[in-house]
Amino acid sequence: MVLSDTEFSGRVALVTGAASGIGLSVLEQLDTVGARVLCCAYDGAKLATALAKYADDPKIKTQVFDVSAADACAAAVEA
Fold it and tell me: For residues 73 and 65, is the Cβ–Cβ distance under 8 A?
């Protein structure tokens, strides 16, 4: 996937499943083009481990919740 920095720079993206696989790859791509990213996963320990290199990056935020719960998704977007 090729993302344009003019398309995503300064924008906010919500990445589900960010602890591994496609979600983690999407996060990495969005980070390279300057997007602000809210990364979520239902396993907090796995998410923290996978995103440890982003701990000091103010553009990258994490939140633990299950995307199959509508109220949890709404709360994440509100935050």
Answer: yes
Q: How many CA atoms lie within 13 A of 53 on its CB side?
A: 6
Q: Say how far apart CA 27 and CA 17 lie, in whole Å.
A: 10
Burial of 28 (0-12, 13-18, 19+ CB in 10 A): middle
Q: Exposure string (b/e) for 51-67, b if CB count within 10 Å is 16 or more?
A: beebeeeeebbbbbbee
Residue 3's alpha-carbon distances to 30, 58, 60, 65, 72, in angstroms, are 7, 20, 17, 27, 28
Closest alpha carbon to 48 in 32, 24, 66, 22: 24
Query: CA–CA separation, 38 vs 50, rounded Å?
Result: 14
Question: What is the mean pLDDT, run by run of 10 residues, along the chain of 79 residues?
Answer: 72 92 94 92 94 94 89 80
